[in-house]
Amino acid sequence: MSKLFLDPKQIERARSAASAIADNITDFILARTTVAVERTVLRLFGLDGVDADFVPLANVVVDQALEAGKLSEGIATYFVNAILQENLTVQEVGEAVASGRLHLFQLPKAPEHLIQQKAIELAAQSLARIRANRQKREEYLQRLGEGKQPYIYVIVATGNIYEDVIQARTAARQGADIIAVIRSTGQSLLDYVPYGPTTEGFGGTFATQENFRIMRKALDEVGEELGRYIRLCNYCSGLCMPEIAAMGALERLDVMLNDALYGILFRDINMQRTLVDQHFSRMINAYAGIIINTGEDNYLTTADAVQAAHTVLASQFINEQMAFRSGLPAEQMGLGHAFEMNPMIEDGFLLELAQAQMAREIFPNAPLKYMPPTKHMTGNIFRGLVQDTLFNVVGIMSHQGIQLLGMMTEAIHTPLMHDRQIAIETAKYVFNNMRHLGDEIQFKPDGIIVRRAHQVLDEATRLLEEIRDMGLLEALSRGVFADVKRTLTGGKGLNGVVMRAENYYNPFEILLRKELGLEQEVNV
């Protein structure tokens, strides 16, 4: 029974509007592909490496298809045809294209059924590897166990993967459950994935497959030492969203930021491009057992957290329904929200608790991702520590799933190791001493907390119905989220969007749809 006395019919009304929004945008998505989706197909086939100019081979091959006007059919058909015709491996075909020895579209065509048979064989091998990674994670969790929810989530962001390893191991020993390796500033706007281990990044470390492999190995080692599985998080947002999802699945990452709305609003990535990319990337994450994080918390950095709270809830409803349509279960949805109200507001704590408790009740199976105060951190480390402590109190009271710890030095510098240690120690203190506080508390039916939750749900429902009637793309152009307006043809990456031809073929999409139950109506 709802502690907030939320009306199930009202929640269903909001969810129904979000479902209609998701249905409409999914039809739009499935009519298109992108250069990133097709590069992901090649990476999943096993193509790796760069050419003499350090351009990833996946980019080289897909660019050849784009220039030839053939990408609308999908890269798989022509790439696999070259494997058959030339009797080469996946890697050999990519290298031959990069060197100029081979042009995919000048080869005779093998029978279609032979091409598709080989493509499905290669795709099945890749998915078997991902499935084995998921099984390995489950084995670790059964043998070692993990921390209690809310998971303590902290970041490392040195720019050097080897220094990140040192900091990540230290954070795990201090009590962290999830280590997030922040990406180098601006990587989300690169239309290629950097290659190999990297030691120079700004504000973070480049997301590369080798960096994923290095950090995964380090966390497995420290997890064995501690007797606790440590989850690894990175960011498959931006122009290479599905490629990084594939890399994460192949290297056994556990958590991924994976939200098209975040990229549209805060990185000015073209909405057509990133919505298509998101759909395929979420299918990969669903199959890999990766928890996705969404970015609604960022809305409150540009819009007022009191006035715009309903936009966060509306976006959570939309993200939930879009995730269902990629086969992602609720248990893998780290829907985002944040403790971002001005701390000078009277009873602000009650309003924050109302928002967090409401999200918990509306999305009962989701490991909600709760973000700390950042907008109103001033550099006063003493007040900052109090703000973070109140945030932790709300997190434990409302049973959040993932608690991204705030740092008292938030407005000063990238956290140092001792800043992180203080944050972890104080969070553990609150979580332990208040573990069952939320279970002991009932709210007044006519009190501030209940009235606030009803107000936000009502406003979110009305907003969702407006978006349903106008369409999500039009809503984004009007700036309904985060007070940021974007256009259908604006932003970065539009030239990488291609309408699918009638004979479009993607063997991974075919297999994943079957494995994820998307051949039938998805139960939402």
UniProtKB/TrEMBL annotation:
A Pfam family per the record: Lys-AminoMut_A
Domain D-Lysine 5,6-aminomutase alpha subunit stretches: 5-509
Sorted alphabetically, which InterPro entries does this protein's record hold? Cbl-dep_enz_cat, Lys-AminoMut_A, Lys-AminoMut_asu_sf
Q: Which GO terms describe its molecular function?
A: catalytic activity; cobalamin binding
Q: What is this protein called?
A: L-beta-lysine 5,6-aminomutase alpha subunit
The organism named in the record is: Collibacillus ludicampi
Q: What is the lineage of its organism?
A: Bacteria, Bacillati, Bacillota, Bacilli, Bacillales
